[in-house]
Amino acid sequence: MSRAKKKLAVFGFERRHEGLAPLATFIRRMASSLAISFVVIAFALLIGVTGYHSLAGFDWVDSLLEASMILGGMGPVNPLPNTPAKLFASAYALFSGLVFIGIMGVILTPIVHRVMHTFHLEKDGG
Fold first, then answer.
1. Of 73, 45, 71, which Cα lies nearest the Cα of 60?
2. DSSP code of 22?
3. How high is the pLDDT of residue 11?
4. Which among 98, 104, 37, 92 is positioned nearest to 66, based on CA atoms?
5. The CATH number of the domain where 100 resides is what?
6. CA-to-CA distance for 125 and 71, rounded, in angstroms?
7. Model's pTM, two decimal places?
8. pLDDT-derived band of residue 97, with 50, 70 and 90 as boundaries?
9. How many domains, the chain?
10. Are 70 and 76 in contact (CB under 8 A)?
11. Alpha carbons 46 and 99: distance in angstroms, whole number
């Protein structure tokens, strides 16, 4: 088996000449994508909560609120008391934007693959 075929087998997506995967396979792929996304979100939230707690001196609940709002793209809630906290908030906001883009890629990959594969089947079949 060629190296390219092995890579595709690792990701579990069907190749162009193969039929559309069953709905159960698609649902399993979506569940895997969502699970990966939740793990990444939890890790990013842990970074934010720890940073706001240690650098800004917020209690744990306020740190969770602040990190959640930044990670969700809503913006800060509480004023930041010092320069290290402001620098952390700046870096965390940039990090959160990249996490959002990455998570959207992970979640949308099975959907886009299924749609594109459907188009190829219609093109090949007709």
1. 45
2. P
3. 58
4. 92
5. 1.10.287.70
6. 44
7. 0.78
8. very high
9. 1
10. yes
11. 13
**What's the rounded Cα separation, in Å, for the pair 95 and 71?**
9
- Structure-token match 């842990």, residue found: 46
For 95, the domain range is: 29-125
Residue 97: which residues within 8 A CB-CB, separation 6 or more?
A: 73
Classify residue 57 by its DSSP letter.
-
| Rounded CA separation 91/73 (Å) | 14
Residue in 107, 111, 63, 113 with CA at minimum distance from that of residue 88: 63
Phi and psi dihedrals of 31, rounded to 5?
Answer: -65, -40
Hey, what amino acid is at 78? N
User: Hey, what are 31's tokens?
Assistant: 């569940």
Instruction: Give the residue among 53, 44, 51, 40 at the shortest CA–CA distance from 105.
Output: 40
Cβ–Cβ < 8 Å for 36, 106: yes
**Residue 73 domain-assigned (yes or no):** yes
Band the pLDDT of 10: cuts 50, 70, 90: very low
Give the number of residues written for the chain.
126
